Amino acid sequence: MKITSLQDLKKIQKTIADAAALKAAQQAAELEKQRRLAAQKNLFIHAAGAVHRIPDKRKALLKKEQPAPVATQLKLDEQAVLVEAISDGFDASSLLETDETLSYRRPGIGIDVLQRLRKGEWTIQRQLDLHGLRSDAARDALSGFIRDAHKHGIRCVRVVHGKGLSSPGKTPVLKAKVRNWLVQKNEVLAFVQARPMEGGAGALVVLLRPS
After folding, report:
1. Per residue in 102-132, pLDDT tens?
2. Cα 85 from Cα 16, distance rounded (Å)
3. Alpha carbons 150 and 157: distance in angstroms, whole number
4. SUPFAM superfamilies given for it (predicted)?
């Protein structure tokens, strides 16, 4: 707008003043609107109290997958079997007494223990007969028998391995093996050849450590 007179200047000043007044009025109205909305919101919160989010029922609440149970007892049993395992490759000949019956006593066990075993001073409480068993089956049977006897507090047992009379060549296959196996068992303290009335050369009388 071209100013040609004082009157034109006054009109321009009035227009600017009116625009400023309108803008101020609009800002005041907006502030009042926000104040009222805030007041209404606070009023609702005070009236409703604490609120909680409603779970979305469209979502499945899945339980956290639990780790697979550890078979602790099974591991212990497997470890015990490994510890108790006896080998066919073990040669106990150097550990046996040099007498004709090849008796055995664990280090620290006195010679008197063998003497008492030979005299039958220990009562035989259990017996295992390995007649007719193959080597693997006999080994497993002997290991289980010794373990179970010791577990139940048995101190003296007899193991019948036979004289080999029915074996090929009349060779007592199990006789030497049974001695080798028994030496490997921690439960065994000593063993001697059985007396004639208890099986003689076909059996051993075995003393077990206290359970």
Report:
1. 899 999 999 999 999 999 999 999 999 998 8
2. 107
3. 10
4. SMR domain-like
